[in-house]
């Protein structure tokens, strides 16, 4: 397959320009405008592009919904989906992308935003290449999601009918193009509302029920039983974390309320349930076990939500076979892997669209050391074109 399928200078210019645009979760509007301008310039018709209305359903204030681009096929075939997320994390605020040799970094003390502007640049390059070179392809949908970094919201809420009911999907969100992600972890988000009883901490502490003490006992119990941090139970692995703890108003008041938020993760849904259940049980037992001088005890309101489902797909799944075959033609020596983070692909797979995740050259995301490997980015662009036009 020729190495000059894409225009490398234009592909890099797209990426560098897009990296300069701030687009934190909820504020993706300017990035979407830049994408649409580039697609129109490449020959994409305005009637092929639209925003859905998922922004009305996402918690918080979101400027726009997902940007969906439906490109008619030049030949018959089942529709293929290509996707990546528009938003970046707050650490990318004020990023100033610069190229030094084979790397793009931020000259400011910020993250770069390669997660996931590599995907946005690669998707623009994909559409531009197909249209300007007149390459044959089946019907395609290109999806630019919003709110990925704060809960995979765009992928979670998108309607398959709006996507044209694709047969398979290719998500871009990673580093090495040849590492094809065929499985990802699942997760619960949970929160515990701990209700104690207030009293004067100096005059009558025995009359109070400390929500802080209930909280500390519960977390200690979870850790003692092996459900905190890295977890191994019966040859299955998972993780958990307590992310935030809030409560208390004054040092001389027995704390009557605490809010604790955390997460549970595993590639095994039953272990995710088990981990979350361990937290629930620990908080409830700690509340019952702490009484004041009147025999009163605290109470717990424990709430949980499955953030995203784990998935795995076999190597003979159509998108896996297609990605592997195209990667081999590019001499990438591809491999399939599973990852311990959530992806937009989790929700597409849960909706019944088998979706793999490919790399676009982003490394060390969510850190000030983040960078884009130029060679891997360009290879990722070529891989997308190869997949889009493959028989």
Characterization of this structure:
This protein is α+β, with helices and mostly antiparallel strands and 391 residues long. It contains 9 helices and 18 strands. It has helices at 8-19, 29-41, 114-133, 153-157, 211-224, 269-288, 318-329, 344-350, 374-389; strands at residues 49-51, 67-71, 80-85, 97-100, 103-106, 140-145, 168-172, 179-184, 186-195, 229-233, 236-247, 257-266, 299-308, 311-312, 335-339, 355-358, 362-363, 371-373. The protein has a 6-stranded mixed beta sheet with strand order 1-2-6-3-7-16, with helices on both faces. The protein is elongated and about 80 Å long. The model has no long low-confidence stretch (mean pLDDT 96).
Q: What is Rg?
A: 24 Å
Number of strands: 18
Can you list the strand order of the major beta sheet?
A: 1-2-6-3-7-16
Cα end-to-end separation:
14 Å
- Please work out how many helical segments DSSP would assign: 9
Task: Find the structural class using helix and strand composition.
Answer: alpha+beta
Q: What portion of the residues fall into strands of 2 or more residues?
A: 25-35%
- Helix residue percentage: 25-40%
Spans of at least 5 consecutive residues with low confidence: none
Q: What best-fitting shape do the alpha-carbon axes yield?
A: elongated
């Amino acid at each position: 397959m020729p190495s000059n399928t894409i225009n490398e200078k234009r592909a890099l210019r797209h990426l560098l320009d897009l990296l300069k645009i701030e687009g934190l979760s909820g504020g993706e509007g300017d990035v979407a405008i830049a994408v649409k301008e580039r697609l129109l310039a490449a020959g994409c018709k305005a009637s092929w592009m639209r925003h859905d209305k998922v922004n009305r359903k996402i918690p918080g204030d979101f400027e726009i919904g997902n940007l969906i681009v439906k490109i008619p096929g030049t030949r018959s075939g089942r529709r293929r989906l290509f996707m990546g997320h528009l938003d970046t994390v707050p650490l990318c605020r004020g990023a100033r992308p610069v190229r030094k040799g084979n790397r793009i970094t931020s000259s400011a003390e910020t993250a770069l935003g390669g997660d996931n502007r590599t995907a946005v640049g690669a998707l623009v390059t994909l559409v531009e290449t197909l249209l300007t070179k007149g390459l044959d392809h089946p019907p395609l949908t290109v999806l630019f999601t919003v709110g990925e970094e704060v809960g995979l919201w765009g992928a979670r809420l998108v309607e398959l009918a709006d996507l044209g009911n694709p047969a398979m999907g290719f998500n871009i969100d990673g580093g090495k193009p040849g590492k094809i992600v065929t499985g990802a972890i699942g997760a619960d988000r949970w929160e515990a509302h701990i209700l104690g009883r207030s009293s004067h901490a100096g005059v009558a502490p025995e009359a109070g029920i400390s929500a802080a003490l209930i909280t500390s006992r519960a977390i200690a119990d979870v850790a003692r039983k092996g459900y905190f941090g890295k977890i191994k139970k019966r040859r299955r692995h998972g993780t958990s974390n307590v992310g935030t703890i809030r409560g208390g108003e004054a040092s001389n008041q027995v704390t009557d309320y605490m809010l604790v938020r955390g997460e549970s993760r595993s590639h095994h849904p039953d272990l995710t349930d088990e981990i979350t259940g361990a937290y629930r049980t620990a908080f409830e037992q700690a509340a019952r076990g702490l009484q004041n001088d009147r025999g009163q005890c605290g109470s717990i309101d424990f709430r949980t939500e499955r953030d995203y489902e784990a998935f795995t797909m076999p190597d003979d799944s159509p998108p896996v076979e297609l990605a592997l075959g195209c990667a081999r033609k590019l001499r990438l020596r591809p491999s399939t892997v599973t990852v311990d983070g959530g992806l937009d692909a989790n929700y597409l797979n849960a909706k019944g669209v088998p979706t793999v995740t490919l790399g676009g050259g982003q490394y060390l995301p969510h850190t000030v050391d983040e960078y884009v490997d130029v060679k891997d980015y360009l290879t990722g662009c070529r891989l997308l074109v190869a997949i889009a036009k493959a028989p």
